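#struct-pred

JT: dropping the chains for the assembly here, can someone run the whole complex?
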Amino acid sequence: MDKLSEVITNSSLTTFGGGQSGTWKVISIITIVGQPLELVQRIEIIKTKYLLDKTNYKWFLRGVTSNLRYTTKEENATLDKTPSVLDRPDYKYAALIPIKKSEEWWLLTQDERRKIFEDTSRHISYSSKFLSTIARKLYHSKDIGENFDFLTWFEFAPEHSHQFDELVNYLRNTEEWKYVTREIDIRLVRDDKDK
Amino acid sequence: MDKLSEVITNSSLTTFGGGQSGTWKVISIITIVGQPLELVQRIEIIKTKYLLDKTNYKWFLRGVTSNLRYTTKEENATLDKTPSVLDRPDYKYAALIPIKKSEEWWLLTQDERRKIFEDTSRHISYSSKFLSTIARKLYHSKDIGENFDFLTWFEFAPEHSHQFDELVNYLRNTEEWKYVTREIDIRLVRDDKDK
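RK: done, full complex below.
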């Protein structure tokens, strides 16, 4: 019996494996809203489609990079001035924030979602303040049938942790976040030696 | 070795299997632009994730239904007045049109794509003329790593074939279509008896 579901050949597929191995050591896993995620010691970022041993992991979170969904040309020009650079040696801290939004959100039309996302919640314009200190990468998970809709990965220097807290606290109080039904805040520290 | 790519649990996953079985008998497969698709006699629409026998098929095209990407609230209200009803016994004809757009298209921002899609090409407003005679369903394939970005499935009565031709001919001459790098036009007729 062949599994038709083996369709992900998207080269941008990234898997976050939660378990006991990986470069990123877990500092905390806090459930902001919805069902918790099982606690793990480390997170491994897996770019390949094959794993030699799956038993090392308690869970996997998967996502694909995709085209821009809300950003305008003008906003993108601003964002492009300060590109996100991951893997900077001084950015020793990271955060992985998986998010799921309600059915109600996804039934909104494009202009309604954009209005809430930016006009009301200022998601892009507020976040722009942190471009120079917080690197980020967004992965889409909803259309590949994952439990979360998005995974956002952030990297920053330890001294900018308070800025990161400021950013997530701001977002959690926006109109947009009223549609968030599940959110986990995973904080990590780079620890290459015990990889 | 576990395949991490077995991730599609999305219940909206639909597979079009091209081969020698299925309700829909192929009338023609015409390559509009790009690499052709192997000719087949029939197409089977598979909603489950498992297949008992894969050898019946020459190819599979897969897609997921998703949220609206360009439609505004106002446009959606118009569209909702004439909902697409598939599987109508009098709609004996169908068309499956897989499309791929260029990298250039996907690098455009949301407002740039919307401008080309509707302001310039009138994709929604022109297509609206055919709502009462042509039923349709859009599947997204890009983010699940397929060779095409979209699959659109249409059903209509044989007497409205010329309207369908009018619709696709219009779209193929739009600004939006300049970004289409691969398109196959598959016409079908319902043939339940030889299912």
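JT: nice. The helical segments of chain B are 73-81, 103-107, 110-120, 123-127, 161-172. Strands of chain B lie at 2-3, 14-19, 24-33, 42-46, 50-51, 57-63, 93-101, 134-140, 150-156, 180-190.
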